[in-house]
Amino acid sequence: MQVGGDIESICGKCGATWHLVIALVKGQIARVECKQCGARHRYRGVAAATSAAPRRASATRTPSTRARSSKQPPIVEADLSRPMRSFRVSDTYGVGDRVAHANFGEGVVQAVRGVTKIEILFDTGRKTLVHGRGNTS
Length: 137
Hints:
By secondary structure, the protein is mainly beta. It has two domains: about 5-50, no CATH class; about 70-135, no CATH class. Helices cover about 5% and strands about 35% of the residues. The strands form two sheets. Strands 5-6-7-8-9 form a five-stranded mixed β-sheet, with no helix packed on it. The longest helix has 6 residues, at about 45-50.
């Protein structure tokens, strides 16, 4: 294995498995970067992660809304009368809007969370993204 190569590892942040090797120590993989969310962490092999003891759940922690499965049913179906829009943080979106994101692909806005956040269902799962930021210059 070499730096820059693809490797399977479990991401503690998003649960994805495909990573990029970013550091080797004495020929062993030391650090990886998740290809899904960009998080950098120590290498955790897939076999080691499945046999490890389960993590303790915090008493105040609620179940994660991050997608671990690509088979989540949509809350809102796509409104096919609306055009597909390239996702931009500066634009605003409404429920049912169809978006094309550079990293996550095509998705449908499922919910508007407050003034600046939206939840979008992509093929890879639900993502909460910022929108309506506009130009601040």
